[in-house]
Amino acid sequence: MDVSLVIPAYNESAIVLDTIRAVSARLAELAQDYEVLIVDDGSTDGMAELVRGCGDPRVRLEGYASNRGKGCAVRTGMLAAKGDVILCTDADLAYGVDVFAVILDRFRAGDAGLVIGSRRIGGEGYKNYPPLRILMSKCFGLLSHMISGLPYDTQCGIKGYRRKAAEQIFSRCTTDGFSFDFEVLMRADRLGLKVEQIPVSVINFRESKVNVIRDSARMFRDVFRIRKKVRSGK
Asked: Residue 69: helix, strand or coil by DSSP?
């Protein structure tokens, strides 16, 4: 099972090399062949040069010149990935690297098109979150469930896809911002893809790049737009 790991990144020069070392070491234990795609979402801090110079032939830089949003970065990486299974996580490795093995085991054991993390199951998903982040996450989760009827923790940052499922989903996705996960799972449901959930919790926590007022308002607006678009077959 060849594995691709997609990591969207914006101005992550302070941590990107440590992240590359950590994920590469773990993937080398789990897969005969793997690649790591760092997708530069228009960074301005020299991150791209660090990735190019990292010296790891399994690391590939993708991206574009202007900042467009996490959804665009993930979509770019997913459509460029070559693995049979494509994992996606954030540059800060919030959920650690041991979760990769859990996801790959689920794919080997079953027929899921997607295996996604959930902070809602297992009891400890939010244990390291500050109160405001917990409130934001749960409010958006409640709205997402009400709008879509889907039982998922849409905004959890660790997900895995079989390559065919990734191509089916991301070739249709258009959301560039933080609400892209909601579109991904609505399209997976529309396509009839099997989704399995695994319990996860935050291991590495840092301040979010999400602006509480601006981005929350945009995300709430986006879910209605996404639902309409997906249900209309566009």
From this structure: coil
Q: Are strands 85-88 and 159-162 parallel, antiparallel or unpaired?
A: antiparallel
Q: In sequence order, which residues have a C-beta less than 8 Å from that of residue 159 and are 6 or more positions away?
A: 87, 88, 114, 115, 116, 117, 181, 184
Task: Answer yes or no: is pLDDT of 202 > 80.
Answer: yes
Q: What pTM did the predictor assign?
A: 0.91
Maximum C-alpha span of the chain: 47
Residue indicated by tokens 């399994």: 58
Q: Is 8 exposed, middle or buried (0-12, 13-18, 19+ CB in 10 A)?
A: buried
Judge contact between 82 and 35, C-beta under 8 A: yes
Please give the structure tokens belonging to residue 110.
């079953």
Contacts of 91 (CB under 8 A, 6+ apart): 7, 8, 9, 12, 15, 16, 19, 38
What is each CA distance from 52 to 9, 16, 24, 80, 219, in whole angstroms?
Answer: 14, 11, 15, 17, 33
Q: Give the containing element (helix H, strand E) for 177.
A: none
Instruction: Give the SS3 label for residue 92.
Output: coil
List pLDDT tens digits, range 4-33. 999 999 999 999 999 999 999 999 999 999
